[in-house]
Amino acid sequence: MGLSWREIPDEMRAFIEAQKLFFVATAPKDGRVNLSPKGLDTLRVLGPRTVVYLDLTGSGNETAAHVTENGRMTMMFCAFNGKPMTLRLYGKAEIVRPDHAAWAGLRGLFSDFPGVRQIFRLDVESAATSCGWSVPDFGGMRERSELIEWASAKSPDEIEAYRVANNAVSIDGLTTGYVSDDF
Question: pTM for the whole thing?
Answer without folding.
Answer: 0.89
